[in-house]
Amino acid sequence: MSLARQPQRRAVLTGGLLATAALITGCSSKTDDSKTAEKTTAAGAAATTPSPATSAPPGSPWAAFARLMEGNERWVDGTLQHPDRDPGRRDFVAEEQDPYGVVLSCIDSRVPPELIFDTGLGDLFVMRTGGQVVAPVVTGSVEYGPMTSGTPLIVVLGHQRCGAVKAAYKALKDDQPLPGNLQSIAEALRPAYDVVSKEKHADPVDAMVRVHIKQTSADLRSNADLAPLVKKGDLAVVSAYYSLDTGRVEVLTGAPSA
């Protein structure tokens, strides 16, 4: 799935300029020519790599889950493949899409699902709300893939140091409503707050994030429309926590079996 990248193009251009200069000065050497040829050959091979558009999406919950987690490992290790992000892929999915995963995550600018799972165009349905809270329209958006095209995986992804959860925790604890429609986010997070407020936690905000992730995924898993798909094994609903410090996705509940 490797693509021809800018540094390789620069290598080709640089090689060409060096070769021209060598001819003009009459100082070219067999060693330089050999290196230039190697660079040109490598760049040409990368340019002719088959397009990722030909790869089939994983068809089972486990296969979809495994592909996402493999992508996250690449994100953590810095060995990104940047798959499915070329004009060929754009053309391939222009008429029809077949994403293999649904991700419900926070609007936080540091948590873009397509990047942290190293996926590309046409791979994921992504919904992002403050604190990954749900409402009927959000639930409907989550249901769309599994119910219309058989998407086998839903991931509810919360994250470390969530500003929305922090603000909601303070508002609920102090009984001071947030301004405007922000209070609707706090109210959606109240069930998680109610659980956390009855216990002692070193970091109650982080505990509330984790509780909320689990509650949301459990609600989706028992959803009247999604539950039959889960029961048949055609769909998995996973709750997961993203670390801003390490880039790693930690699975909390619902990981499918192979």
Total number of helices: 11
Largest sheet: 5 strands, mixed
Q: Helix amount, in percent?
A: 40-55%
Structural class: alpha/beta
Q: Any idea what the radius of gyration is? A: 24 Å
Mean pLDDT: 85
Quick one: how many beta strands? 5
Low-confidence stretches: 1-54
CATH topology of the largest domain: Beta-carbonic Anhydrase, Chain A
Order of helices and strands: HHHHEHEHEHHHHHEE
Write a structural description.
The protein is of the alpha/beta class and 258 residues long. It has two domains: 6-47; 55-253, 3-Layer(aba) Sandwich (Beta-carbonic Anhydrase, Chain A), CATH 3.40.1050.10. Helices cover 50% and strands 12% of the residues. A five-stranded mixed beta sheet has the order 2-1-3-4-5, with helices on both faces. Helix 5 (113-116) links the parallel strand 1 (101-106) and strand 2 (124-129). Helix 1 packs antiparallel against helix 2. The longest helix has 20 residues, at 6-25.
Keywords:
258 residues, alpha/beta, Beta-carbonic Anhydrase, Chain A, 2 domains, five-stranded mixed sheet, 11 helices, globular
